[in-house]
Each structure stands twice: as C-alpha cells, then as structure tokens.
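Input structure tokens:
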C-alpha cells in the first residue's frame, strides 16, 4: 500500500470519517495477496519505500497483468520490467491504465511521482547507444522512486571528449549510474574525474571475448578508481533502486 494512502486512511479513522470496519477491509490484504500463481507483496512499499516490481521474463502476459492490477490497488505506481512487445500489447489491452515504454522494456501503471523525494540529481551515463535500454531501465526506476534524473548517453571511452562536454551536469549530481558494455572502462573514468559515488552497470553488449558482459563485470569489480560499486550484468533496475535509496531524503 502507498504510504500516503495509508496515512490518509488512518487519519480518516482518527477523525471518525471512516468506520473502523471499513478501514479493516482496506487493510485485510496486508502484507500480501495470494493469487494462486504468485503472492503479490503489497507491504513492500511500506517496508522499503518502493513497491514490488514485476519481472516480466518467465511470466505469461496474463500473470503480469494480474499482478500489476493487484499491486496498483494499493495506490502505488507500479511497474514490470523485461516485458516483450507481444506481452506488453496484451497487458496494455487488459489493463487500460498501463503504458508500455519500449526502450527500457517496461510497463508502468500509475503516474510518475514528483521528483521531490531525493536530496539531489541522479545522473545516468551510458557508454554506447546499445547500452541505452539498460540505462533507461535504471533512469525509469529512479524516477518512479521520486528522483530527478539527468541522462547522458553515448559518451564512451572511444571518444572521451564527449563525456567531458557534460562535466557540469555530472558535477552537480549527487550520484552517477554508469552503464557500459565492451571492456567496461567508463565507470572507472567517471569515478576518476568526478567526486561522486558511481554505481557501475555492466551490460551484455560486446563481441565474443566480452563473454556476454562478464568482461565488463570483472573490469568494473577490479576498478582502480575509488567509490565504484557494481551491480549485476544488465541490472538497470538494481542500479536505479540503489541510487534512489542512497539519494533519499532523511525522514523527519
């Protein structure tokens, strides 16, 4: 359940605008809803500040649609990642409020929240255009967590002057997510040039010896630049979620 909706519900009960029995009906499905094929975690937003995200891979379109509907019932904006075009077409037809974002391969139900939950800007940097789908997954995740996100794409080390041209944007950011395939050098460069924490995302982009992203992963894990943390291959969602948590304003 969305924390703001829960607060409104409790305040309504306290003010006697809503009977206790009605509030109980609203809360009866916490902390999850059993769907038979899945247990939708409706409590995750309250625990972690971000609703459960549906991984589209390995699920049928019908399952994706059903889980999104259940999660959205709590008032949260929810999304599914790694959704194929065919599955997206079915889900959007079955869930009229859903919208398909083809580049990050995501489906979102609900509005993008205002960017007022983070302390500062999160910048998402990609080495090449082929890395953009993973970079967009990271950017979308951070935006749905209420952050202001800046994008800088196609600035890899083969043309380093392209990165330096965006120096001012990176310097005013709180956190940098850097997405790269091939040899995976860009996160080390960014961490070496800018005093910002870097979340490195290796991608599976590259020729044979890149081994589906393993070369980039190992390069990022053995970076000589300080302040680089690494998520799994193609895990844009994980990077966006981590950046959002690190950037979150302290609750009073």
């Amino acid at each position: 359940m969305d924390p703001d909706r829960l607060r409104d519900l409790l305040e309504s009960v306290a003010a006697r605008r809503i009977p206790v029995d009605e509030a109980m009906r609203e809360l009866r499905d916490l902390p999850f809803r059993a769907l038979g094929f899945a247990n939708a975690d409706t409590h995750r937003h309250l625990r972690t500040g971000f609703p459960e995200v549906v991984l589209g891979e390995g699920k049928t379109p019908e399952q994706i649609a059903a889980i999104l509907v259940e999660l959205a019932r709590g008032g949260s904006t929810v999304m599914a990642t790694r959704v194929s075009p065919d599955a997206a077409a079915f889900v959007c037809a079955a869930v009229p409020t859903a919208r398909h974002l083809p580049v990050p391969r995501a489906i979102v139900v609900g509005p993008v929240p205002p960017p007022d939950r983070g302390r500062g800007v999160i910048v998402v940097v990609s080495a090449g255009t082929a890395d953009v789908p993973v970079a967009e997954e990271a950017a979308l995740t951070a935006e749905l967590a209420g952050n202001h996100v800046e994008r800088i794409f196609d600035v890899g080390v083969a043309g380093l002057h392209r990165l330096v041209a965006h120096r001012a944007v990176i310097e005013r950011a709180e956190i940098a997510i850097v997405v790269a395939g091939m040899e995976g050098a860009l996160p080390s460069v960014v961490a070496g040039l800018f005093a910002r924490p870097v979340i490195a995302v290796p991608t599976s982009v590259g020729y044979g010896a890149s081994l589906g992203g393993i070369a980039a992963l190992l390069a990022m894990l053995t970076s000589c630049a300080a302040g680089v943390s690494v998520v799994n291959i193609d895990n844009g969602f994980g990077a966006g979620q981590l950046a959002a948590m690190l950037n979150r304003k302290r609750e009073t």
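The radius of gyration is 20 Å. Residues 132-144 form the longest helix (13 residues).
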